[in-house]
Specification:
The protein has 217 residues and is of the alpha/beta class. Helix content is 46%, strand content 15%.
């Protein structure tokens, strides 16, 4: 039986908080220096709630009075800051991620990433932490220009059909993407979502090490 496991990135495989907060602050400082933003830097709590959202959703919330052009500039600057931090190993994978994806790969599961982030951002994480070889392919909203995570996962499954599949993530968008595409949804409470976002998940795990027994049962 062809079995597929699709992972979200931020808040599921990668502990994004230190990298994201530092990159957000650097980005807002640059916006202020360039005269493109005159407000205060948003609080950490608001910035963290943007993780896992699309670029459009994120910057409309954080820069509601700025143009789309400024949103794109901010997104590009933030990505550069994030990439520098990732390459310096400022962030890290959640405990058990490397061992889990390696074991699933060795058992013959097809592993994928479905992320609302940029493709270069996802590649930077996987390559820096040396787990890229375990993944068959990477699907990102930044590459495929999909409007929702559900659309992105639909495209992935169209290109890589599976007889049995799992969606693993920490946000409501991951739950919706899995449900709309007929996948078994495993929510990660160690990520950044409000626990209510995972109410409709089939299973909920508090550490990545709990994933293998659910997937292989």
């Amino acid at each position: 039986m062809k079995q597929t496991v699709i992972f979200d990135m931020d808040g599921t495989l990668f502990q994004t908080e230190p990298v994201a907060l530092a990159a957000f602050r650097h980005t807002f400082e640059k916006l202020i220096r360039e005269g493109l933003y005159y407000g205060n830097i948003p609080p950490d709590s608001l910035m963290l709630t943007q993780l896992g959202k699309t670029m459009d959703e994120m910057w409309k919330t954080l820069l509601p009075d700025c143009s789309v052009e400024v949103h794109r500039l901010a997104d590009g600057w933030m990505f550069e800051y994030e990439r520098e931090l990732i390459f310096s190993r400022y962030g890290k994978l959640y405990p058990g991620v490397e061992e889990t994806v390696k074991e699933l790969y060795q058992r013959g599961y097809s592993l994928f990433i479905a992320s609302n982030g940029r493709p270069d951002y996802v590649e930077a994480i996987l390559n820096t932490f040396e787990i890229r070889p375990f993944f068959t392919d990477l699907y990102t909203a930044g590459k495929y220009k999909t409007k929702t995570k559900a659309d992105l996962v639909h495209l992935l499954l169209k290109n890589y059909p599976a007889e049995r599949g799992f969606m693993v993530g920490d946000r409501l968008s991951d739950v919706e993407a899995g449900k709309k595409n007929g996948l078994i949804v495993i929510g990660c409470v160690f990520g950044y979502a409000d626990p209510r976002e995972l109410a409709d998940a089939d299973y909920v795990i508090s550490s990545m090490k709990e994933l293998i027994p659910l997937v292989t049962r």
